[in-house]
Amino acid sequence: MKTDPQAFIRANTSLMPPPHVPEISLYLASEAHELWLKTEEELQAIGLPPPFWAFAWAGGQGLARYVLDHPETVRGKRVLDFASGSGLVGIAAVMAGAREVMACDIDPWAETAVRLNAEANRVSLGFTGADLIGQAVDADIVLAGDVFYDRAFADALVPWFAKLAADGKWVLVGDPGRSYLPRERLEFCAVYEVPVTRALEDSEIKKTTVWRFASQIKNESLMSPGHSGGN
Q1: Range of weakest confidence among 54-68, 73-87, 116-130, 210-224
Q2: Positive/negative CA dihedral, 125, 126, 132, 138
Q3: 115 φ, ψ to 5°?
């Protein structure tokens, strides 16, 4: 790693609350930070993967909001915050009373971001950089915000989430209508209007839905009307 993650994060982000989850503060990049403007080539030159951890994505904000508004979902349970990025959803789970929270992200920079964000919010959660897709997980509930943006990634996640659900684990997904969302396997939980940055998304507000992933394909009649998604 060419750059010290902690020093870089502190220098290129500011501690601020995501607009839809004001109870939590994160080290985030905004238009005021140089990180926002760096090209992929510039990021590679300093040894930095795409900094997904530096932004509060709509799916994660919606899922974190749901967890805070429905603490009984995670209270007393072991939680896996999958593809955690900044750790927003995992931090929300700790605040909502989860017994144990493990953040998971294969980006090595996310570990530092999660640690700094957890410290800023005076909470404690674990971290693993392991690729858990297809593996059994030691958790009661899996939380996944904004994970269906890529076809290959979605194709890997669907059978894994289905297996976890079949094993009796809850899998909750926060999604603002990404292209590869498997709607035929989802049960509606809640919907939010999440403020986002137009530079990241195609609008300033993203309708973001929280779904429970089902182990089997659901009938269209079981899907909530009016929440078909779409970008």
Answers
A1: 210-224
A2: negative
A3: -60, -45
Number of helical H runs and strand E runs in the chain: 6, 9
CA 146 from chain centre, in angstroms, equals 6
* Look-up of token digits 């779409």: 230
CB 58, CB 196: distance < 8 Å: yes
Please tell me the distance from the alpha carbon of residue 70 to that of residue 82, in angstroms, as a whole number: 19
Give residue 215's pLDDT: 87
Lowest mean pLDDT among 2-6, 86-90, 171-175: 2-6
With the CA atoms of 71, 75, 78 and 82 taken in that order, what torsion angle do they form, in degrees rounded to the nearest 10?
0
Query: Which residues on neighbouring strands pair with residue 175, listed in sequence order?
Result: 209
Q: Which residues pair with 81 in a beta bridge?
A: 103, 143
Q: Are 117 and 26 in contact (CB under 8 A)?
A: yes
- The Cα diameter of the chain in Å comes to 52
